[in-house]
Amino acid sequence: MKSCEKNFIDKIWINQPKMPTRKMFFHGIQFAGHTAEFKRKKVAKILRGKKCSFFILTSPDSIAWLLNIRGSDVKHTPLCLCFAAINSEGEVTLFIDPKKIDRKKRIILGDGVKFMRPENFDIFLKKIANSKQKVLVDKNKTPFSVYQTLILAKANLSFGEDPCLLPKACKNEIEISGARSAHLRDGVSLVKFLSWLYKTVGKKNITELTATKKLKKLREKNQFFKGLSFETISAVGGHAAIVHYRPSKASDEVIKCGNIFLIDSGAQYLDGTTDVTRTIFVRGGSSKPSNDQKNNFTKVLKGHIAIASATFPFGTKGYQLDPKARKYLKQSGLDYDHGTGHGVGSYLGVHEGPQSISKAKNNVNILPGMILSNEPGYYKADKYGIRIENLVTVLENREKKELFFETLTLAPIDRHLINRRMLNVKEINWLNDYHDRVYLSLKDSLDKDQLSWLKRETEPV
User: What CATH code would you report for 173-457?
Assistant: First the structure.
């Protein structure tokens, strides 16, 4: 392959939109937990440990975390598009369109942050290359054009991971507390939605898109709500077997009694990011789930519980936990073609690295403070799909010197899709304890009808 000076996509992209110039804004210390100065010093220490003088930041989420800034340049993710560089003393040069940041905000960022226009980024790269100081580059994150500029300028490069990744992934106590609060409000919205759905389906034509709009309206009323964290997956019947299905006017289907309905959704709050999937059997009349549906749902649930209740030593990788989630499906020759868990940001990306739980040999340790999804599933082509997703955070049992998960998501799991005989005593206890916690956490925020529905849905199995 040969590199080109000009981007041919730009040449053929007709009516290409201009780069966004919406204002950046600050993510308050009451949500971030640490100041930008604290974070800059932490990253600078990592650089000194690697004997590097600079790190080039090209990932907007790393810059957002480092400087406690957010933006509106990317749909569903509060990012401000820009580049930056940080040196081993913690000084940052931020390459940002002047329209995005006014003088007052520059002053707030302090003397440790200098500002340059994005068009001067290449000049800066060449300058630090000519200095022969060692520059840390993350080859997995750095655009080829940036890498090429440094190579052609004969920069003294050192290759390694973005030093913001792990500190960003390991949430501090304020961020964990915020995540709990965000999931509490989000759980109330989800329960209101599910109780409404059961009450309304069969009486009115509720479609996949109708359901999506209803859940969004409920979330919009929540404190600190800033938007959805991704486009909602609202899928009935065979559509639910398409892992990343998105309803459209052309594909929109009515949700009918006797169907399996899967809804995967999430929100961005100032104090946390949510992502939750519930699969329900839409009850009504004499309709009942088939044995096939109940058995497969229960296998997925057993895998979900195995992850949620896992304890493991320091040094454990996600791929070492992944088999727990697939075990019961695989005993029947079944599986799912996606990861079991992805990292989640704190009012940042709903998909965040470097942590994951999947078959892939990701050598990143699962560490205290990380937030991940727990989402095993099963998909029967053209028939139905099942996924049970909660977010979990990693906590440490200091006495036993081991790690465990705390489930953050608060929403009932459909008991009518469970084959109780397939669950052992520990699994039944986990489910009943979880449902008890859901009920006690949410009951004071619901009206009489919603509370009555939740009480039924969280009864012991």
Answer: 3.90.230.10
